[in-house]
Amino acid sequence: MKKIVLKQMMRTSNIKMSFFKCISLSLVLNVFFSFQLIAQNKLTINGTIRNETGETIVGATILIKGTTTGAISDLEGNFSLNVPDSKSVLVISFIGYKSQEFEVGDKINFDIRLLPDVTQLGEVVVTGYSKQSKRDVTGAVSVISEEVVGRTPVNDIGTVLQGRVAGVSVDAQGGPGSISNIRIRGFGTNGNNDVLYVIDGVQMRGGSNLFNINDIETMTVLKDPSITSLYGAQGGNGVIVITTKSGKYGPPKLEYTSYFSWENPIKYPESMSPQKYANAYWGYLSNSGLPLNDLYYGSGEQPVLPEYIIEQRTGSPLVAFEGDPIADPSLYNLSTYRILKTNQQGTDWFNTVFGTAFTQNHQLNLSGATDKSNYAISFNFLDNEGVVYGTYFSRYSLRVNTEFKPKDWLKIGQNTQFVYSEGNEVSGGNHKSQGMLADLYQRSPLIPVYDVAGNFSGPKGIPDNLALHPGGNNPLFGQENALQNFFGFTSGVVSSAYIDVEPLKGLVFESKIGIQFYPYSYRYFLDTMPQNIYTSPYNSFSEGGGWSSDWRWLNKISYEITLRSIHKISAFVAYEAREYVSRNSGGTTPNLPYTTPSYLNLSNGSPILNGGPYNMVMGGSDGVTNTSVFGNINYGLQDKYLFSFVIRRDGSSKFGPLSKYGLFPSYSAGWRISNESFMTKINWINDLKLRAAIGTNGNDAIPSGLYLNQYNTNTYSSSYDLGGLNNAAQTGAGLFQIGNPYIHWETNVTTNIGFDASVFKNHLNVSFSWFNRKTKDLLGVPPASGIAGDALPPYKNIMKFSNKGVELEIGYKNNLHKFNYDFGFVFSTYLNNVDYLDGDPESHLDGDAYAPTHFSLTRSVVGMPVSSFFGYVQEGIFQSAEDYTNYGVQHPGLTADNANGHFKFKDVSGPEGVPDGIIDENDRTFIGSPHPKFNYGFTVNLNYKAFDISILLQGVYGNEVFNYWRAYSVFPGMMGNGSDDTWSSTNTNATLPVWDNLTTFDKMPSSFFIENGSYLRLKNIQFGYTIDDVPYFTKFRIYLQSNNLVTITKYTGIDPEISTGSATNAGIDFGGNYPIARGFTIGLSLVL
Amino acid sequence: MKKLFFATLFIMIFLVACEKSFLDVYPPNVVGVEAFSNKNGVHQLLVGAYHDVTGLTLSSGWWSTSGTNWLYGDITSGDAYRGGYNDGADGVLIEHFQVQPTTGSIQEKWRSCYDGVSRSNAVILAANGATDMTETEKTTAIAEARFLRAHFHFELKKMFNNIPFIDETVTDFEVPNTTDIWPKIEDDFLFAYENLPVIQNFKGKANKWAAACYLVKCYMFQGKFTDAKNLLDLIIPPTYGGNGNGANSQGITYSLTPNFDDNFNAAFENNSEHVFQIQFSVNDGSWGGNENIGETANTPAFSPLSSFFSTWKQPSFNLVNSFKTNENGLPILNDWGEDISNAENIVNDQFVSGTDYTYKTYQGNVDPRLDWTVGRRGVPYLDWASPSYYGANSTGYTSFPTSDPNFGWINNRLFGGPYTPVKNNYRASQFGIYSDNYVQGYLVGSAVNFSIIRFADVLLWAAECEVETGSLEKARALVNYVRERAMTGRKVEVANDQFGDFAPSAHYLIGLYEIPWTDPSFGRNLVRLERRLELALEGHRFFDLVRWGIADTYINKYLTEEVERLPANLTGVAFTKNKNEYFPIPQTEIDLNPKLKQNIGY
């Protein structure tokens, strides 16, 4: 296809015909008028109209602004027109392309490029392997334009998609440099649910914070198998195809955009005062029948807060009051005798660690194109601070995209990004029950941030102790330490290069190589850290790094032909090979005599061979190869009936000889009902297409080598001091992972039925899909008999589940004179159900088990949504002995005499399947679901002259959150602070049970922790001001934006948007999430 | 023409790229079984199997799987309590005989032992397939693997009684537990006995005589006293009245070490008393993987040894009392040879403030082994300070004052009593050498080896055999060997405390049984008591009580007496006959293998 052929459009439908006839008629009239004008003016101009790739456009209209004079481009794309004078303004338009206006000036020859208008029907769907007009696509896709991406000042693709694309749910992880979890149509696997990104043909799993999203031109979300089958075993979780900016026809264009943001955490929990905490502890002792006696609080009727705490290297800490000689500052010694002046008012650890974060982003683009080449160069600098002290992410990115056409049958191009990044995370990691953020809930408010000498106070003052003294490392110290002593970078080159040969019209040979190469390095110094729990007698220095490379080579033959103007056929076959390799190595050395940063290297340590640590080295590697053969045939009959067939055969070295290959076909069909003759009378329908697809995908995102028995020489679990030397173990080996030679692909079979409609003069666009996505052969690790040993049991293909749902996208766009408005609404819902599990109705798959109870919080069984919340049903608190007796049942440790104030759990069942009067394992049941009833988003864009406003509301409805951080923090019996509403004889309406040592059962996973997770969030509101042709600039835009300004939710934790990353722990709030921040942004955009 | 050239080039690339072997990539992150079918590989697998003797396997629960069995053999036997708090942890359930088939610890122990079995079997398979080993080398490797396999099965057998035996031929793990596996365990030990050398290239390896001793242990557990006696005769050297050649893995003839405490000191381990030990080690690059991680919580709380908040194995009043001796240095007995020491508690500081300087240590006679076994106030704890004592002096370490008496070396006396365990801990002078510099939480691991069998144990089996089938006088002589060593060996130095005005910490007096034994029941009682005193807190006691068939009477009697002394812990606790002798088969294991039958009573 070298030309956008008008003829074809003219044949498409009667409506189109009549529509076009009107235009043609008016044009003819215009031409007639123009002849009249020629009589008055001698200025004749001519030119050629081309599309963005340089192909000529037939039938574009060229109008003189403010008149009805104009012309139409001919079969070669040429036009000729007489204009009144050099001040005349030409308006060039063509369906599917953005109109262009410019002053004639003193030129008489014009080469005009039209850019596609992705907001119109002519949207092109780029699948990575092919391009198709969206109106011909027979599957469910959503396209996000450059404009939307450009107006979203974030560094995260998920945030751009959230609320804007139906069927896409996003967990914003927060934290600088983090990437959201994107889920398309619910969970597709218990393993890796990350979508596949295809950036200029280079595939990457789960996205990367190294990618500069300011380079995006279009982003297409492929949701159903009619297209995702092209990606076979990679496409099971959905595919996001990204095309980066290429140069547009014209002289070099220089563009600068930037934004500056200030962010603060939305909310943090309240802390309990030290005195309240001590009182509660006293209550605990007295309720437990223990003597009112404590190292910190003395022994008396009332607890007395100590004024000094002395932390020692070992043994119990000392407490003292003002004037006590043991608190004499002259005794202070950082390692052995640290003196803390307690904070009687209470240290607000959250306030200490959180603060305002500043982010800046600068992007410089240079682009342009000629007939034979185009280029786009961008430079980006991002410096992203986090609201948690010490966290940041900064990145430098350079992109060069070029394409050359040495011959009209030969095209050569490349897209390359170079990137370098640095960053610092929360110590201990995000999203974990053990991370620093989770620890914040458990820090004693009595401990000051700094000791009397100005050093960070440590945890030794308050040992981690069942006596309910909150302990743990100084959170601020951990962050400060990481900031001072941890260094590292990740860099990368992501590139794709291609060559297209078109020996015959319509027949294209393409060869494309995609490369990703990521070298990284880290080094860190660990001092002895005398104030930490993990005190080391030696300092140590670690350094290491690694790299990963991933190349992919695609060879493709495609052919496209239109026969007798009614049969439109396009097809391709392709072969693709890919190899992934990664290696890493590193070492640690102890006892560095110099701690000056410049002297820190691995050769300067001095290992102690007897009675001390050795030098240590570590390393690892991985490697995977894939080969694929695939093809696609699209057939369109009279632009009414569309058929598409995709087949892909993937081979992967991840699987054993018994199941190396998988076959993934898909079939789809579309019916453009609006082109049928019986629809011609219905004028308000401009376009209506019904579509249906069924197809398969796989998921191979599993560790390699699971088909093999894997041994290791892990020193921790396999070495042994066979020589009886007491400090030198021999290397041993053991089986640690049992293999399963029969392991094979997880497969999705998806049915998708829907329609796309444009009505009311294309003002209203509606897209609807119903889908049924069945995943079979899901991998799981069913528990294995311990008789086989303690190695990790084999992975097996044991499970089937389905996600059924609907997606709706509605867009309305219109204008009242200069007031333009558009509204968008997206809605999606899915129902997940486990259909099969290991062939055994009793089987269940549990989520991870965590402290404090080591019971897992989720369970998957047949007939329930995957990873439903699982636990006891809590039905209030025992108020009296009668209450207990009447209730009749209780868990161990309680009797009618002492049960007051403890939780009542429901007797759901027993060993015989009926309630048995005993609360035990049998009474755990399903208590909630992390799956929302629906997701929705609402966008408004208003524009009047230079002003614009855009608003994005985004919400989730009907899900639940397992607010388990309460078990670590406010919950009685745990080492936490944060609530004083515990039960006592004088506070019988308490929400929390009594503090005593009779039972730890109250904090078992139960409905007590389940909360409504629905929320509606004003995700984004932006005011912009844009003017063209100001002095020095052709375009100038400034905007002000706020993120997460308002959230409406009943959830009591920090934020209902929970991100755990894993399917089996979905919707569990462990308290360690990086909080979502509220931000204000100023942005600027200039075109020179 | 050019176009044609390019098109042809493409087609060629297309064909070349379809190379099939491209996918035959062995995952580089995987070490497969092929790596071990050679001499070095077999050795590595063997080291891996030995590692499991520590109990620290992949899903280890540290204390629950500890090779030292303190959780199952000590706190269940009347010798110790589960200290700390009534925190509902498995340890408390186990101490209180409330263990359920769903209790996590027992499943961990089960899995951990079968992991050892699996690793032992892997050695056999690899050795069979190795091409660079001689037949003798193969046989030796297999004999060692079978020794270890038998050891792990023995661990399971004594705990669960009804268990499946897994050898290297098993691939379907749905094996029933209804067949008695003693013969198979015996077979393995017999094979090891017949095929292992005496002198091994590594001290920590099991040798011929270790296999013989373990075989004796099997006989003892089955009451096969004649078989045991015959074999013991081949083991016990003439010095101890036998005709045997028993020797440790370095070829040193078995004998009792001069000092009792040499067996609990990392500097003296693998000595002549060593039969088979867990070779604990520290600072060996394993990040604590070979330290005695299972007993890291069994150090005095908040002491210089540990900043852990609890001591989870605390010696009982009952145990401490039984170390009392009379004017002849003999246990406090009635006329039938029964230990009646518990009629009266020895002086202790259970209810004494740490700042009460008038407290005096018990002034009566005690067996010197007491203070190598139990830490108590006023007596040096190895070369550390004196437990629970304000400003106590010690050799080499100055204790610091603590402002709260209840935070001395014991966290919660109401639940755990005033005593701390000693045998598994390292000395102050060995800090950083035999203690791990890698601290896991507050827990400091020790390199002190743990004897699965030591020669004193063997002598006392011999004494038992003599009581049951032979000569009471020989039994008396054997018991006296053990007592004599305690008598002549090193004692805890009983220096006055720093204030100088108090009496010495303890009066040690131990004597030999001089009067001939005439009544088998009398002799039996004394041999059993001697086992308790000599092997206290070494993980054997509960299993001894069960094999003697006296677990229910003994333990319930103990509980009746002890509940008065420690009501917060022991109220309502009872041992159920014909149930609590064995632990329940883990429910999860039954769920996964329906051929397993649950033990009686559960």
Strand neighbour order, sheet with most strands of chain B? 1-3
Stretches of chain A where pLDDT is under 50 for at least 5 consecutive residues are 1-41, 463-467
Percent of residues of chain B in helical segments? 25-40%
Q: Which band does the percent of strand residues of chain B land in?
A: under 5%
Distance between the termini of chain A: 35 Å
Instruction: Tell me the total number of β-strands of chain B.
Output: 8
Low-pLDDT ranges of chain B? 388-407, 496-503
Structural class of chain A: mainly beta
Total helices of chain A: the number is 12
Largest sheet of chain A: 22 strands, antiparallel, barrel
Rg over CA atoms of chain B: 27 Å
State the assembly state of the protein chains: heterodimer
Could you estimate the helical fraction of the residues of chain A in percent? under 10%
Q: What is the typical, i.e. mean, pLDDT of chain A?
A: 83
Question: Mean pLDDT of chain B, as a whole number?
Answer: 88
| Terminus-to-terminus distance of chain B | 87 Å
Outline of chain A, from the CA principal axes? globular
Q: Overall 3D geometry of chain B?
A: globular
Features:
heterodimer; A: 1088 residues; mainly beta; 22-stranded antiparallel barrel; five-stranded mixed sheet; 12 helices; 9% helix; B: 602 residues; mainly alpha; two-stranded antiparallel sheet; 19 helices; 8 strands; globular
